[in-house]
Specification:
The protein is an alpha+beta fold. Helix content is 30%, strand content 29%. It comes from Algoriphagus oliviformis.
């Protein structure tokens, strides 16, 4: 039985384990899942991502977590918090993001998991969390709205200059402990 850092009625959040590589590599190799990213990832690139997440968790106490469906015990993908330092007028910042296998889409799992991650951010006393998605990624933008994030602005993502079809992004944010919009 995996040791979960926190859970929801349907999801368990944990750090990455060696046995996650095959399932996560399959998710990252799916062209439809990766439609709003630069490209599908190889097994080696997936391992490098897992390694980065483990280092981030050690350094920051959060990462894009491995997420299991509690009933089936399957890895559904990743939902969690990241530290972003790319060139922008709002970085460095903590962001929330997700990537689920297609089997798990349209079941409310992303919203359920992202809400739990925002609660986790509050416990860590992170004052503000942002989220970004390519302007065409309506599903992710809808999740941002459902979890209580407010639209902030659109921007051109500096790391996506070579990918003009996804470079224009919408940025949402939530500020904890504040009722005013900044």
């Amino acid at each position: 039985m995996p040791q979960y850092l926190f859970s929801t009625p349907r999801l368990g959040f944990r750090t990455w384990q060696p046995f996650d590589l095959d399932d996560f590599a399959a998710i990252n190799a799916d062209r439809e899942v990766m439609r709003y990213f630069q490209k599908p990832l190889s097994r080696e690139e997936t391992q490098a991502m897992i390694d980065r997440m483990l280092r981030m968790y050690e350094e920051k106490g959060y990462c894009y977590f491995a997420v299991d469906h509690l009933e089936s015990k399957e890895l559904i993908g990743t939902i969690g918090l990241g530290w972003k330092t790319f060139e922008a007028d709002f970085t460095p910042c903590v962001d929330i993001g997700w990537r689920l296998g297609k089997k798990w889409w349209n079941k409310g799992l992303t919203t359920e998991g992202a809400s739990a991650c925002l609660d986790f951010a509050k416990q860590l006393q992170i004052p503000e969390v942002v989220s970004m998605a390519s302007v065409g990624n309506g599903a992710s933008i809808q999740v941002m709205r459902k979890i209580g994030m407010a639209y902030w602005k659109d921007f051109e993502h500096s790391e996506l200059r070579d990918f003009p079809h996804i470079q224009q992004c919408s940025l949402y944010r939530i500020i904890f402990g504040s009722t005013e919009e900044r």
